[in-house]
Design goal:
323 residues, 79% helix
């Protein structure tokens, strides 16, 4: 089986059900007088684009800054850090949302006890912040993979020629730009089709509206017809993602390059910021789960059931991905 044949098979398996569903929806719209025509709000779609684009840009920026910290101070464990980031991407976004709600509520209680003012952690800002942290492992792992794939002779030339840090970034970015773009597109695709986190914070987005249409009508074809802006956008971004990945030269071996500018002031600021980002990403969910564990009765039973569901979900997901 050639690479082109495998690619065609994967594309056919991915897009054929979408085209079939959307095509049958159009056919029913033209031929069935009783077909329910959905009301489509382009304003809501544009709002979803704005929220998710903001979240994706912040997530990508935080991912790059966090990776600079790992790449600078964990020279001997970079490969291990990459696998840890990849594994942490399996944490469901809803866990991050629940953790951040608990974390912010605790801070709000302290603020209220001191000032009598109770801040409100809801709305679009909360959605942007939580989704940015939820999908941080994707952008961070890809940035780290890009940095570890840069040829060693590039860094040797930086050290011998004593480039300034500005030139340093100009040299680094072209090598990792495709990895950053892949991370951004992937995270945006996940975000734009996500409705659980926005619903938690009381924000209506296009994906949530589609869920509401399906819940109200129970008609799959009506929902599919209403989703045409999302389908067109997703297919376009998937095609762009394919083009970028296809043109990216993926290194088979990691390199052990050093950050020769780690003592520069601007690099120190970025490294400190990256450390803080990683700290919040790791500590907030961990502390929340530890605190919650003391409030439940049958903790071992819950862990057992959750583990079984986790294994089942990812095992079935892996089979689906292979098929």
């Amino acid at each position: 089986l050639t690479r082109e044949g495998l690619t065609f098979f994967c594309l056919f398996e991915t897009f054929f059900p979408v085209f079939f569903l959307f095509g049958k929806s159009l056919f029913m719209l033209l031929t069935d007088e009783n077909f329910l025509v959905p009301s489509i709000s382009m304003g809501l779609f544009l709002k979803s684009l704005r929220i998710n684009l903001t979240s994706t840009l912040i997530c990508s920026g935080m991912g790059f800054i966090a990776v600079l910290f790992i790449w600078t101070y964990f020279e001997k464990t970079r490969k291990r850090a990459f696998y840890i980031l990849a594994f942490s991407a399996l944490i469901p976004p809803f866990i991050h949302a629940h953790s951040w709600i608990k974390f912010i509520d605790s801070i709000n209680e302290i603020i209220f006890s001191i000032s009598g003012i109770l801040p409100d952690f809801t709305g679009e800002g909360a959605v942007v912040a939580v989704t940015a942290f939820s999908y941080l492992p994707f952008t961070a792992a890809l940035c780290l993979f890009g940095l570890l794939s840069i040829p060693s002779d590039i860094f040797d030339s930086i050290r011998t020629e004593k480039f300034s840090i500005t030139v340093y970034y100009k040299i680094i970015f072209p090598f990792i730009l495709s990895y950053i773009l892949v991370g951004m597109l992937f995270v945006f695709l996940l975000n734009i089709n996500e409705y659980a986190i926005p619903s938690v914070f009381g924000v209506n987005v296009y994906a949530l509206e589609l869920f509401a249409i399906f819940s109200a009508t129970g008609n799959l074809y009506t929902t599919a017809l209403a989703s045409w802006p999302l389908i067109i956008l997703s297919l376009t971004l998937l095609f762009l993602l394919y083009l970028i990945i296809n043109k990216t030269e993926i290194s088979e071996n990691f390199t052990d390059n050093k950050n020769y500018f780690k003592n520069e002031n601007s690099m120190k600021i970025l490294n400190v910021t990256g450390g803080i980002i990683i700290l919040f990403f790791a500590v907030v969910p961990l502390v929340s789960m530890v605190v919650e564990s003391f409030t439940v009765n049958n903790l071992l039973g819950i862990i057992k059931n959750s583990s079984e569901q986790f294994v089942y979900s990812y095992f079935s997901g892996a089979i689906t991905a292979v098929l």
